[in-house]
Every structure is written in C-alpha cells, then in structure tokens.
Amino acid sequence: MKIEKTKIPSSKGNLAAIINYSEKKTGKLAILCSGYLDSKNYSHLASLAGELSKEGFTVVRFDSTGVWKSDGNISDYTTTQYLEDIKNVIEYMFHQASYKHILIGGHSRGGQVAILYAARDLRISLVLAIMPSSKLTTKIGRRYKDWQKNGVSISYRDLPDNREQKMEFHVPYSHAVDKNKYNVVEDVKKVKAPIIFIAGELDEQCPPELVREIFDSANEPKKFFLISGIGHDYRFNDNEIKFVNKDILKLLKVVGKH
User: Fold this and answer.
1) With contact defined as beta carbons under 8 Å apart, do 88 and 59 qualify?
2) Stretch 52-76: mean pLDDT
3) Residue range of the domain that includes 26
4) Which of 6, 46, 59, 187 has its CA 20 to 30 A from that of 145?
5) Number of domains in the chain
6) CATH of the domain at 115
C-alpha cells in the first residue's frame, strides 16, 4: 500500500493531504473529513484510511483551509469553505484517475459536512456519518452567546504525535454565523446516496438521539448503528478505534450493495 503526502490546490492556497492508494485499481475513492479543528493525522481517521485502502479504496484525508498544515487563515475555516475544499479534493483526484464510486465520510463535524456535501454533489455514491454533529448540541446556547460576546472562541487540540502538547486556535464568531446557514437535518433529505450513521452510546457531544434525528430525516437506503461503550473521543483509545472500524467495514459491505 502506497501512502503519499501531497498538496492539493484550493481556492485559498493549498490543502495538506495524505492519500492512501489501494494496491489494486477498483475505481473506488473515499474522502475522509476531520472534525472541528481536528487534524487529518488523528488516529481514528488515519486507521480508517488504512482499512478502507485494504478494501480497494483510494483514500484522501486533508486539513481544512486555515488550520493545521493547510494554507489560509483561521477566518477561512468555515463550513462554506470546507465544502469548497472537498470539491477541490475530488477534482484533484479525478485529474489523476477515473472513479466510479465515491464514498464521503467523516467524524463529528466531518460527518456533518460529508452529509452537506453529498446533498450538493450527485456523484457521491455512499455517505459515512460517524457521530455527525448538527446545529443543536447540549451546550450550544451558552457557548454561542459567549462566542458572540467575545468575538472569538479559543479552542485547543492535541498534536497527533504528542497528546501532551496543544495547538491553540482562535476561531472568529463569523465561523458560527456561516455554520448556521446550513441545516443538516433538512439537507440530508436531498441526499440520494445510501447513508450509514454511526452513534456512540456514551457520546455526550453528539448524543445518539441527535444523530437519530438526522437519520430519521434521511432517505432510504440508510442504516443507523449504535456502538455500545463508545464515546465521542474514541480516537484516544486504539482498541476502541479498531472496534469502531470493524463495525464500519461490516456496514459498508452491507449498505454498499444497494
């Protein structure tokens, strides 16, 4: 299996990306989207990319515009730009080869954006929404009021290779304003491709009932799968990552037949 680090041209510079190439050409492409301020190199997506490549997918994961190793300013880190980033990644990959099957997936905000993108691109043939976020969360009210008052939200993310070290992000309130232009519960109704929804029993950030709300609005074929004993940040536990990925691969084989 070949793994390549590359730069993908986007509307705000270049996106830092990693491509896992399958050993055999199957015409299957997978785009994996990171969660809010998350790195493409976090263990859960990196591991999933490896597993998908074994199943014949060429897999791309990338840092969104304005964060980590991609070009752009943090003010460019919006849902609108994220959707543009995905489009640019797909166009880049189609210049390299021809693909008949496109899977788009992601974790948390990445799962939400995957759904939003699939609603806008009929080429998508399968969606994988892992604990997707929606406009509503358990602490959204207080957080948004403070964000609006201060004009910026400060968040920290651990480095992929060193959990003790943190990266600091100052996200402007314009991010929240842009995000609220989109409603995943409504947009999922426009998705024609099969969708797999993964919920974590212990997930407090994107609780199962909110994932179920998006699922209920989605078209058939669709699948909702609740994983017991798993929380939102399962990426910190290698055994949990393997457990989640195992279930994902089983579901892909079933839903992918539609």
Assistant:
1) no
2) 96
3) 2-135+183-255
4) 187
5) 1
6) 3.40.50.1820
Q: Is residue 154 part of a domain?
A: no
Residue 85 within any structural domain of the chain: yes
**What's the pLDDT at 256?**
61
Instruction: Say which amino acid occupies 229.
Output: G
User: CA-CA distance, 174 to 176, in Å (whole number)?
Assistant: 5
Give phi and psi for 216, each to the nearest 5: -60, -30
d(CA 185, CA 226): 19
The mean-pLDDT minimum among 61-70, 91-100, 152-161, 246-255 falls in 246-255
Q: Which of 27, 192, 177, 45 is nearest to 111 (CA)?
A: 45
d(CA 34, CA 62): 8
Is residue 237 included in any domain, yes or no?
yes
* 190 within domain boundaries: yes
